[in-house]
Amino acid sequence: MKKALVCGAGGFIGSHLVKRYKEEGYWVRGVDIKKPQxxxxxxxxxxxxxxxxxxxxxxxxSLPFDEVCxxxxxxxxxxxxxxxxxxxxxxxxxxxxxxxxEACKNAGIGKLIxxxxxxxxxxxxxxxxxxxxxxxxxxxxxxxxxxxxxxxLFSERVFASYARDYGLDARIVRLHNIFxxxxxxxxxxxxxxAALCRKVAETPDGGTIEIWGNGQQTRSFLYIEECIxxxxxxxxxxxxxxxxxxxxxxxxxxNDLAKLIAEVANKRIAIRNIEGPEGVRGRNSDNxxxxxxxGWAPQKPLLYGxxxxxxxxxxxxxQQAKA
Length: 323
Ligand code: NAD
Fold this sequence. Notes:
The protein is of the alpha/beta class. 40% of the residues lie in helices and 18% in strands. The protein has helices at 12-23, 54-60, 78-81, 86-107, 147-166, 192-202, 224-236, 254-265, 288-294, 302-322, and strands at residues 3-7, 27-32, 45-48, 67-70, 111-117, 133-134, 169-175, 178-179, 208-212, 218-219, 222-223, 244-246, 252-253, 270-274, 284-285. α1 crosses α7 (224-236). The longest helix has 22 residues, at 86-107. The termini are far apart. Nicotinamide-adenine-dinucleotide binds next to α1, α4 and β5.
């Protein structure tokens, strides 16, 4: 039986990935500083451990794993990463990634995926909301708009150097705004789709929601199913892959995203744009390279994912109201 290790298994993408590994018949160890928030883990074994500690990283990789997915990170949406959490993000995630790279090297791990982010791309390239595609080779000269993005770029270099110098089979993937059920939806770390679904769910028909910025900033959003499919395809590919984007190319403004959610909710909702953290003006995946090297790229429309996310968030909101 193949063995997989998922670090960050208590988080959004990690818990979905564990489930997929189990469906594929793997034996899975999950590691996280906390257990999954929205249900029991599907992992065979779950270690609650702090990967900022070298010893915990060594314990995490203590079995002969065929595959390791390093997703653990101190992260959140723009309301978290753009609002004075730089020191903790840089400190925590750098330590986690350095410890994991070293532990995987020493343990002779088979294959590893490191989840980087679309936030690595330089802010100068993302001034125009209508022209914001990010091909992989545009990450340098480096100038991400947040230290979260800079840490991701640094940790990409850590895993790439361990691949070059020690033969670690590291695959690096830049995720672009993943969304879906079982992700954070309140508390300050939630991302735009979850935050907007929550606002719409909490607002009566005919009401108004607030959106940070002028709402013309654009992004693309990838539904969790396709993210997991992409990660599994990247893991299954031959070694020597270049760094790849994993995202949707369906660009949408934040105001239009809110309108789409209101439509799915079947509510008339007005938007009030207010000052607040909003990030770069535009950011969209460029899927030419992933299509070329894998012969596959995400295809599902945004609407497909929103139709699944909204009812889940609405149920959370209703449950909380009752409680
Ligand atoms: P998440 O916050 O839900 O999951 C990250 C997990 O890491 C959390 O469960 C957290 O408890 C865990 N963690 C944090 N510090 C830890 C520590 N010291 N030791 C052990 N575990 C620790 O985030 P996610 O959305 O599931 O993201 C997973 C990965 O993908 C992250 O590396 C993130 O930066 C990257 N990513 C996500 C997105 C997205 O849109 N969700 C976009 C780009 C990149």
